[in-house]
Amino acid sequence: MFKRPNSTHEISPRNLPDLTAVNTVKLLGVYIDHTMSFHEHVEQIARFYLLQQIRKQRLHEDCLKILFHAIIVSEVLYALSAWGGYISGDNVGRVNKLLCQAKRYSFIDTLLTFPELMEQSDKRLFSRVVCSNHCLYHLLEKDNLVLQMSLRPRGHSFYLPRY
């Protein structure tokens, strides 16, 4: 049941006859399931079939590496900062297994891991957001808080507002 803030009207999906309940939806290229585990998204990423078939056609190894980055790595990196923190340890293991297979099949030169990709993605996103001409910059506020906790050092003096 969904409820608007400061409103007494409730919108119930039961009252909408043409609405069908689904467990997974694809939104802007990311599969979101009802548990927010992104299991289906990881399932869609973990596909080597096309690359293996192209490899059987004896495509040059450098071209296979380019294809792997274009097909698989780009899917992993797409909106990774949005969905990467929600996946389970099992799905992290599945992505890491996929990347190990890619190394074994010589689709990549150096072994990539999911945590490394996640960290690179977060750094890239935040380095862009802290520029004053970025559309999300206005959401950041200067860090004027004095915290009593011992936190890891940050590479910036901003914090996200608490709404």
Describe it.
- With 163 residues, this protein is mostly helical.
- The protein has one domain.
- 42% of the residues lie in helices and 10% in strands.
- The protein is built from 6 helices and 6 strands; from the N terminus they run E-E-E-E-H-H-H-H-H-H-E-E.
- It has helices at 39-45, 49-56, 61-77, 80-83, 89-104, 114-129, and strands at 2-3, 10-11, 24-27, 30-33, 141-142, 158-159.
- Strand 1 (2-3) and strand 2 form a beta hairpin.
- It is globular and about 55 Å long.
- The mean pLDDT is 79.
Largest sheet, described in full? 2 strands, antiparallel
Helix content: 40-55%
- Number of separate helices: 6
User: What is the global morphology?
Assistant: globular
First-residue to last-residue Cα separation: 22 Å
Kindly estimate the percentage of residues that lie in beta strands according to DSSP: 5-15%
Integer average pLDDT: 79
Q: What is the number of domains?
A: 1
